[in-house]
Amino acid sequence: MSAGADPVLIVTAHQEFIDAAFDELKRFNTKLLYGELLAPGILLCTLPSDTHPHDLTSLARQAIQQRPIFVRHLAPVQAVIHLSNTENDIGELALAIANLPTFALLERGQRFAVQTRLLQTGIEAVRAGSNKHAYSSGHVNQMLAEAIAEETGAVESIKKPQVVVSLLCTIEKAYLGISLTTDNLSDWPGGARHFAYLPEQISRAEFKLLEALEVFGVTLPSQGMALDLGAAPGGWTRMLLEAGMQVVAVDPAKLDASLSRQPHLEHYRGYAEDYLEEAIKRRRKFNVITNDMRMDAREAARLLVQASACLLSDGFIISVLKLPHETSEIDPLKNLYEALRLLQRHFAIVQARQLFHNRQEVTVLTARPQLI
Ligand SMILES: C[S@@+](CC[C@H](N)C(=O)[O-])C[C@H]1O[C@@H](n2cnc3c(N)ncnc32)[C@H](O)[C@@H]1O
């Protein structure tokens, strides 16, 4: 870590895109420094020691307004304490939290959550051969939440907190901060959005669509037509049907047996490229188009531009854009930005986000096709 710089922020992103996440934030404050990678996808950033605390808040607010693609979660670091990796740490953490100037955010009646993340890292601990924590994150959350509620009258609310107490603990150190949930970019610790598994669920891909709807703030219409490209085995199709839509599912592969005999489902057993040509000729129109096909991001973008001819003017598209792994010759971001530029030329609304449920891909929402 450079001299004269203080740890200020923990940034979380997919481990392959942590550098891209840092670059996104650096645009909002050019003094931000890449401090230390605490674990894959978890970066400690620093700012020069003379930085005003307001600069950090404004960085977080800009990040929210500008909707970064790769930054998944931000947690402020307002104190760093040493840990002994014994039960005594919990008392030390409680004290350090109570001494933070931002402790005043925890007012009577305010909903709060303690979000502890434990990392099995720490150079000295690894050297000494001990990299297990003496406590669980659940235990730390519970002990600290009880102490905070008693002291301040704030009310613990794990699902909908207004204020978050963030702790990231390596074996030897804890990084602490208190912030408004809205300044963290995600309500979930580290942005790790979890959904409950449903018995009727067909594929894990359903979590991706659920998260996309939440992140982009859109809901599936309760009627109208949906086109699902690359639909098999049928998780997204199931969700579109469940919302109340009539669905055309396009995929050469079979759909899950639970979708057979669905009166509102048409399965086009072939390629999206062929279906779209036909749909354009027949002037078919859809309220929602989804795409989860495994294909190059730029190719997918070209297909979405073509599909825009079938999108109603108030409809929207949710699509994944698959990215290659980075090599000395391949820059996945180059592919992504090329795909996004193409979409921006053809749609008035283009938002992209690397979701928690995305792997080597990002998800885009596009709407309002432009006539050019
Ligand atoms: C990740 S799976 C989709 C999972 C699906 N969203 C779900 O929720 O179950 C990708 C699918 O895209 C299909 N696919 C790939 N290329 C395609 C193409 N050109 N046209 C149609 N489907 C395609 C594959 O057959 C595969 O079933």
Taking the alpha carbons of the first and last residues, their distance comes to 50 Å
Structural class computed from helices and strand pairing: alpha/beta
Number of helices in the DSSP assignment:
10
β-strand number: 16
Give the radius of gyration: 23 Å
The main sheet comes to: 7 strands, mixed
Strand content: 25-35%
Coarse shape:
elongated
User: Low-confidence stretches at least 5 residues in length (pLDDT < 50)?
Assistant: none
Percent range of helical residues? 25-40%
Average predicted local confidence, pLDDT: 94
Strand order of the largest sheet: 12-11-10-13-14-16-15
Pattern of helices and strands: EHEEHEEHEHHEEEHEHEEHEHEHEE
Bound molecules: S-adenosylmethionine
Structure in words:
- This protein has helices at 18-26, 53-66, 88-98, 123-127, 137-152, 205-216, 235-243, 272-281, 297-307, 332-346, and strands spanning 5-12, 33-39, 42-48, 73-76, 79-82, 111-118, 155-156, 163-169, 173-180, 225-229, 246-250, 265-268, 286-291, 311-322, 347-353, 361-369.
- With 372 residues, the protein is of the alpha/beta class.
- The strands form 3 sheets. It has a 7-stranded mixed sheet with strand order 12-11-10-13-14-16-15, sandwiched between helices. Strands 5-9-8-6-7 form a 5-stranded mixed sheet. It has a 4-stranded antiparallel sheet with strand order 2-3-1-4, with helices on one face.
- A hairpin with a 2-residue loop joins strand 2 (33-39) and strand 3.
- Helix 3 packs across helix 5 and helix 9 (297-307) runs parallel beside helix 10 (332-346).
- S-adenosylmethionine binds at residues 202-203, 205-206, 229-236, 250-253, 271-273, 292-295.
